[in-house]
Amino acid sequence: MDHRARFSTLSASYDDFLFAPVWEDANGMRVTVLSALARMNVDPWEEATRLAAMPKATAEKTLLSILDLVSGRIWTPPEAAAISARLVRLLPQPGQAAAGTANAATGTAIAATGTAKVSAQRTNYWWVWLGFWLVMSFMMPHHQATTPNAGAVTSESARSIPLDSGDADQVRGRQRQGGIKFIVQGGEKHEVTGHSFVAEASYATALNRDSTRVVSCNTTSIVRTLTALKRAGLLRRARGTLLRRATDPWESHLGGIMNTLVPEPEIPSHQGPDAQSVDPDLDVITMAVKVP
Questions:
Q1: Of 82, 101, 164, 218, which has the fewest Cβ atoms less than 10 A away?
Q2: Last-in-domain residue among 154, 182, 207
Q3: pLDDT tens for residues 197-220?
C-alpha cells in the first residue's frame, strides 16, 4: 500500500512540532522532537497525534517525561516548563489535527483505490496473455500436421544435408551439390566458409554469402568489446588473458580441475586469431587460463 499521501498530510500538520529542536548532544548534534521519539522506538506521528488530543497541561507533562527519559538530563523546573510549553504550542489545534487525520484517511483510501486499479489491470493483462497462449497452443498441432505437405512442394535448395564436423572439403562439396546456404558454429575452422560472423563487426560482409561461421562466445565478446573501442578511437592494440571454465556448470560434478589454474600451453590462444578472422585490422593477442 502507498503511504505517501498519509505521511505528507500528517507532515503538514505536525512538521513544526516534530522538527523543533530540543537540545544538543555532547557531539554538538541538534536533537529534534522527532529524533527523541524515534530513540524511544515510538512512531513520531502517532505520538504527536496523541499529544495533540490531550489537554495542554497533560500534553506538557507527558512530553517532558518522554524527553527526560531520552536525554538523561535533569532540567530545572523553569527550564522544563519553558521547553514543554514551547513544544506543545507547536502542536496543531484539535480541529486541525482532526482535519489532518481525515485528509490522511482520504489519501490512504485514494492510494488503496489506485493500488486496486493497478492490480485489476495486471489481472486483465494476465488473462489476455493466457488467452493468447491457448490460441497458439491450439494452432500448433494444425501447423505441425500441415508442415510435411508444405515441405513436399519446397525447392530442393531448402533441404537439410547432414555433414561431418571438421571436414572443410566435404562441407563445401555437399553445399555445391545441394545448392544450399549454410552456417557453421565456432568449433569449425574459418577456412570452412571463408567468413566469420559477429554482428557488430561483419554483418555487412555476410550479406548475400552462401555460408558463414559464427565464432565462439569468447571470441564474440572480444570482438564486441574491441569493436566498440575501435569505433571510439580508443584502441591501438589489445593484449588479454581469458579465464575460462574447465567444464560446463551442469557437468562440474563429473570432473574437471579443482582448486588450481591451468594456463593453456599455446600463445596466442585461438580467440585472438579468431577475432582477427572477423576483423583483420584488429591487433590482438590472447592467452587463456582454465579455472574451476
A1: 164
A2: 154
A3: 998 888 888 888 888 889 888 888
